[in-house]
Amino acid sequence: MKPKIVSWNVCGLDKINKRLRIRNLLREWKVDTVCLQETKLKMIDRRIVRSLWSGSHVDWLFLTSKGASGGVVVM
């Protein structure tokens, strides 16, 4: 089985509607691992991860943004 990995420049995750669209696409694509770049968020917590990942079991790591740019989350 080949894992499905997606790397995506999302240009910000501050709006819930955008996170829901990303969640739906990740579910449709049946992604195993995702790297979202340019999150532009200072903090990523369980609430944000749950709004992006539809499964109940997920681990994640993140790097915070610097000012109005940057930020990465890997799930």
Notes on the protein architecture:
With 75 residues, the protein is an alpha+beta fold. It has one domain (5-74). The protein has helices spanning 16-29, 46-52, and strands spanning 5-9, 33-37, 61-66, 69-74. The protein has a 4-stranded mixed beta sheet with strand order 1-2-4-3, with no helix packed on it. The mean pLDDT is 93.
How many extended strands?
4
Could you report the average pLDDT, rounded to the nearest whole number?
A: 93
Low-confidence stretches: none
Number of helices: 2
Give the C-alpha Rg: 12 Å
Helix content: 25-40%
Query: How many domains comprise the coordinates?
Result: 1
Spatial strand order of the main sheet: 1-2-4-3
Summary of the model, kept short:
The chain is of the alpha+beta class.
Architecture blueprint of SSEs:
Elements: E1 5-9, H1 16-29, E2 33-37, H2 46-52, E3 61-66, E4 69-74
Parallel strand pairs: 1-2
Antiparallel strand pairs: 2-4, 3-4
Highlighted features:
75 residues, alpha+beta, four-stranded mixed sheet, globular, DNA-(apurinic or apyrimidinic site) endonuclease activity, AP_endonuc_1
